[in-house]
Amino acid sequence: MRSKITVVGAGFVGSTLVQRLAERDYADVVMFDIVPNMPQGKALDMLEAGPVLGFDSQVTGTNSYEDTVGSDIVVITSGFPRKPGMSRDDLVKKNQEIVSQVTEQVVTYSPDSIIIVVTNPLDAMAQLAHKVSGFPRERVIGMAGVLDTARFRTFIAQEVGASVKDVQAYVLGGHGDTMVPLSRLCTVAGIPIAQLISAERIEQIVQRTRDGGAEIVKLLGTGSAYFAPSASVLQMIDSIILDKKMIMPCAAYLQGEYGIEGLYVGVPVKLGAKGIEEVVEIELTPKEKELLQKSADAVKELVAVMGI
Ligand code: APR
After folding, report:
1. 175 has catalytic annotation
2. 3-142 topology per CATH
3. What stretch(es) of the chain map to CATH 3.40.50.720?
4. What is the CATH code of the structural domain delimited by 145-306?
5. CA of 214 to the centre of ligand 1 (A)
6. How does pLDDT run across 28-85, given as a tens digit for each residue?
7. pTM of the predicted model, to two decimals?
8. 42, 153, 175, 270: which one is catalytic?
9. Cβ(150)–Cβ(231) below 8 Å
């Protein structure tokens, strides 16, 4: 039987993700939104691309959680996107209510699912979904690190004129201004970037990565990024559905790893059929540890704002 994936929120991120998933042809996809008819319309439009692109995935749009029943993976993208000038952190109260309500429905209709949270502020929303669902940490994962790392890799590849495929990197920490791009471990075809790019340029690229979301928000005028975010969720889902056990940075509930307890922070994890199959601990320098701790403190503040 085909796997079943539900995407909650049929906005820019959600619908782009559903399109990407349908084209993968390994699962049936349900797209849920509270706006009447809209997810049905988008789903039908995507389904009608099947004969042209050659996929048999069923794509269903709905306003009823009953249609999501028994999903293997549920992706939560519902919420308000960031407006220009608004920090990710300002979003917390706005999206807390939405993510809580959605998570309750996920628990009711897909109690064995793996939840991937995309709604911002990411780390806080992942913490909320973990708390509300009562699911083990293996099954509640936040998408941020893959996107932040993709941005970092894009800029590094541009800088040295290399293929993005040859650029390996990790961005850890919270998905916000305090994220921690580990430039020390960034390589191009195995060569550390310190041998290829000046320290000053690396620092500029690190800063551009930190501001990556805001750069897009400013250019778009309304709304926030969705092409790279949906591609990043897709990579996580590939690793889960195909049990590839890829290691990628995701927001995970830490229980002492990296010296952090009881908090969602971006760290490398192994993703397989069971969700998070391992939290991978990289040895950090004292400076990197300090930055990661700072980032964790920022997440903690947001969690405190939610009062959970
Ligand atoms: N249940 C389901 N869907 C909801 C709910 C709800 N309670 N509340 C809002 N939505 C839907 C909206 O109707 C809208 O279609 O969520 C969708 C959000 O889509 P967009 O406004 O297009 O936002 P998008 O760009 O997709 O971003 C979604 O992902 O990257 C993050 O910061 C971003 O938090 C934002 C989220």
Report:
1. yes
2. Rossmann fold (3.40.50)
3. 3-142
4. 3.90.110.10
5. 17
6. 999 999 999 999 999 999 999 999 999 999 999 999 999 999 999 999 999 987 676 7
7. 0.97
8. 175
9. yes
